[in-house]
Specification:
mainly alpha, 339 residues, disordered N terminus, elongated, 74% helix
């Protein structure tokens, strides 16, 4: 892949700081909106018993029943259980993901391959950015999962974000704070890559439709927020369907280290290793077992993806891009003055 000699389009330190800030803001606001569905998803994924209303052994049987049960047993705090470590995870992940995506994509555009294969570059840069964000945020994800899945009042159920990471690391070492990492990376590259490429494709298609409706060749490169939100939701749902079984296996392997703190939710899944988890889930729950919790997950994924992209793009369009243009103008004026 040959790099052509062109004027550098690399982002300055201030622009990179704004890109990271936009990602952090996007992650924080999105997590606040979507967290209750994440609680539901984790509880469903870790339940070995069937998700059926007529089952006498199942703790949770559906979305409304589960929300009602959690509220009745744990109060409003139960629906938002684990929000603090989840918020730390989301801010860290979104900040690193969007920052690294912008730098990777800017670098990719310096090459003819990147400019000639636009959608492939979206997929590659999005997937790599997702992996980088995951590695940094994984310890907070481990703590978040344990808090949500643990019995009320147990040690695991009261872990705080930073001290929780320290406690897990002290007791279980690197394996503890990175549990589920392999399955996370296996699913995150295609998930985030597909999310970015579908979202960018839908936006490109939207621009074309707007252009045809207005009968203009050069429409201002900004689409209405409602359409931006819809494109983000569609991309989130489609991307999540592709990798959902890997997400379930990841959550269950995270559970293997603290089964003593989770006795009131029913049978614990046998998931000490990835292969054991796959075999055990298939034997006890069948193929449908790999899709437990998918409906609240798809709803959450749609909402989260829509909020992520809409908030970040709004921040980017209103703050980062104008500043970048201002910075470019300042540099051009300085170069003219030197001549």
């Amino acid at each position: 892949m040959r790099r052509e000699k062109k004027a550098s389009n690399s982002n300055s330190a201030k622009v990179q700081m704004l890109q990271a800030l936009g990602g952090g803001v996007s992650g924080a606001l999105t997590r606040f909106v979507a967290h209750p569905f994440d609680v539901l998803k984790i509880r469903f994924q870790l339940q070995v018993e069937p998700l059926k209303k007529r089952s006498n052994v199942s703790k949770y049987a559906g979305m409304l029943q589960a929300f009602s049960s959690i509220f009745r047993e744990e109060g409003l705090r139960g629906i938002w259980k684990g929000h603090l470590p989840a918020q730390m995870m989301s801010i860290t992940y979104a900040l690193v993901q969007f920052w690294s995506y912008e730098q990777l994509h800017t670098a990719m555009l310096q090459y003819k391959f990147g400019r000639d294969n636009v959608h492939l570059s979206y997929f590659m840069c999005g997937g790599l950015a997702g992996c980088v964000g995951t590695v940094v945020a994984q310890p907070f994800d481990v703590v978040r999962t344990r808090v949500v899945a643990a019995d009320p009042g147990t040690t695991a159920g009261t872990l705080k974000p930073l001290s929780g990471v320290h406690k897990v690391f002290k007791r279980e070492g690197l394996r503890g704070v990175s549990s589920g990492m392999m399955m996370t990376l296996v699913q995150i590259y295609p998930l985030v890559g597909a999310n970015f490429v579908i979202y960018k494709f839908l936006n490109h298609f939207t621009f074309k439709i707007i252009s045809l409706i207005r009968e203009e060749k050069h429409v201002r490169r900004e689409i209405p927020g409602a359409l931006l939100f819809m494109n983000g939701a569609i991309s989130g749902v489609l991307a999540k369907v592709l990798v959902y079984p890997a997400d379930l296996i990841k959550k269950r392997t995270m559970l293997s280290h603290f089964q003593e703190d989770r006795k009131s939710f029913g049978v614990n899944p046998l998931c000490d290793t990835i292969m054991l988890c796959i075999r055990s889930t298939l034997e006890k729950e069948g193929v449908r077992g790999f899709y437990k919790g998918m409906w609240p997950t798809l709803f959450k994924s749609g909402v989260m993806s829509a909020c992520y992209f809409t908030i970040y793009d709004y921040f980017n369009n209103k703050i980062t891009v104008p500043y970048k243009q201002y910075e470019r103008q300042q540099n051009e004026e300085k170069n003219k003055a030197k001549k």
